[in-house]
Amino acid sequence: MRELCSELRDALNDIVLSSEVPGFTLALQSYWAQQEQLLTPSCVVQPRSATEVSTIIRTIIRFNAEARVPHGIPCQFAVKGGGHGHVVGVANIKNGVTIDMGAMKAVTVNRGNTLTSVGAGAKWLDVYSKLDALGLSVVGGRLSGIGVGGLISGGGMSFYSPMFGFACDQVDNYEIVLANGQIVNANAREHPDLWAALKGGSSNFGIITRFDLKTFKTNGIWGGTVVQPVQTLPQQINAFVSFNNASNYDPYASVINTYVYSRQNGWLVSNILVYTKPQASPPALEPFTVIEPKVLNTLNVRNLSSMTLELNQFSPLGARQLFVTRTYGNDLDLLKEIFATANTTLQTIASVPGLQYEVVFQPLPPAITSRGAATGGNALGLDPAAGPLVIAEQGISWTNAADDEAIASAAKAVFDKVDQIAEQRGLLHNWIYLNYASEWQDPIASYGRTNVVKLQAASSKYDPEGVFQSVMPGGFKIFAKNDTSITP
């Protein structure tokens, strides 16, 4: 790997960082999850343009092709966008090359204010701080520190999703570097099969270097965080199920219903409520706003930068992280079962140092799942005919690696039990949201065989040697792990 890093340095000079320089350590410290921070690559490369990304890929592929690798094992790489992933190795790599896209964070708006071009290394605050000043917005992330690339590549839930669908549904064009180093655009006119595959297909086809996002006018939002005692749980779940089940679903309204446990505070309820118009106390969110008492209430008229900065403070860097997710039917009793199961299972890990444990419910109504068809379709495989669904998530942070196994075991146990209950009641849905999936889950397979075959066909066409299946080992792949062929 030292020889490869040396060749990259010869080609790209000072954007190649080795462990001896301060910038190397800073690059590792910028990851959100401790597990990713602790992986040490042989070098970090920080490209400033698609051309430099192309040079990196061509150099790695040529180096491997010339068999200058120990024991015939190819030198591998990872790609970091915002670095907010929780799965080990998804954006960093031990003894490989980490391509850090952070320098590519330019945000530009076209003359007609209809498209915003965003570099793949940007975070959502970079986008919103630019657009808020212009009275514009895009369908994007809900925390300021999340990377644009990772969120969109996995689908992307947004406060604007009930109006426009997933973030990937609103990508007009991707600029992407393919496995052979070619720089292409993927959109409805050029490489439309690749464009469709990139809408939810994650990092399986190349390195995206720019997103061109459909852009619309806004004059602000109303929203904030409301924290309440856990004794209000029955009212909270009633309000959530009713909200998600509404036949006249208000497309401006969004809810993230979270139950948070810490050793200091026990259980609390934390609702993130957003209305994407500057209208205070809209009727659609009234079932939540009338619940009393309130421990904290930050609801006010504001811009998206302010809202996402507020939420980001609850997600600091440096702890160990695990997410795991399932999708269920919108059922009152089942959501209560999820919380009760989580509360019981929590007792096995309650003494873990630094533990914060969250159970999160997010609505996934037809108002969201039906939007993609109008913009060329996506790879996610969701059918609005399934009716209102619920994305259920466990988010766990803790301090020490010694507790990893206990944390993962507890998280699995919760959804294993709930899955059995949900299946018996006809409420289990196969879909797994990639951005919340844990390493033992297979979100790509959950898109359904038809979509997986399309993704595999796109991979075979644009990456025939399987570079982004094996030479970049991190992330969720579109071929089974024991499938060494590259043909569908």
Question: TL;DR of this structure?
Answer:
With 488 residues, the chain is an alpha+beta fold. It has helices spanning 2-12, 22-29, 34-37, 50-65, 124-132, 148-153, 161-164, 192-198, 233-244, 286-289, 304-312, 332-346, 366-369, 404-424, 449-462, 467-471; strands at residues 16-17, 43-45, 77-80, 97-100, 107-109, 115-119, 136-137, 171-177, 183-187, 207-214, 216-217, 221-229, 253-262, 266-275, 296-297, 300-302, 320-329, 356-364, 389-398, 428-429.
What's the SSE blueprint?
Blueprint lengths: L1 H11 L3 E2 L4 H8 L4 H4 L5 E3 L4 H16 L11 E4 L16 E4 L6 E3 L5 E5 L4 H9 L3 E2 L10 H6 L7 H4 L6 E7 L5 E5 L4 H7 L8 E8 L1 E2 L3 E9 L3 H12 L8 E10 L3 E10 L10 H4 L6 E2 L2 E3 L1 H9 L7 E10 L2 H15 L9 E9 L1 H4 L19 E10 L5 H21 L3 E2 L19 H14 L4 H5 L17
Helix pairs in contact: 1-4, 5-11, 12-14
What does the model show?
With 488 residues, this protein is α+β, with helices and mostly antiparallel strands. Helix content is 31%, strand content 23%. It contains 16 helices and 20 strands. Strands 12, 13, 14, 15, 16, 17, 18, 19 and 20 form a 9-stranded antiparallel beta sheet that branches. Strand 5 (107-109) and strand 6 (115-119) form a beta hairpin. Helix 1 (2-12) runs antiparallel to helix 4 (50-65), helix 5 (124-132) packs antiparallel against helix 11 and helix 12 packs antiparallel against helix 14. Mean pLDDT is 96; it is low at 482-488.
From the structure above, extract its key features.
23% strand; single chain; nine-stranded antiparallel beta sheet; 488 residues
What amount of the residues lies in strands? 15-25%
Q: What ranges have pLDDT less than 50 throughout 5 or more consecutive residues?
A: 482-488
Helicity range of the residues?
25-40%
Question: What is the gyration radius calculated from CA atoms?
Answer: 22 Å
Number of strands: 20
Largest sheet: 9 strands, antiparallel
The termini sit apart by 32 Å
| Integer average pLDDT | 96
Number of helices: 16
Shape: globular
- Output the structural class: alpha+beta
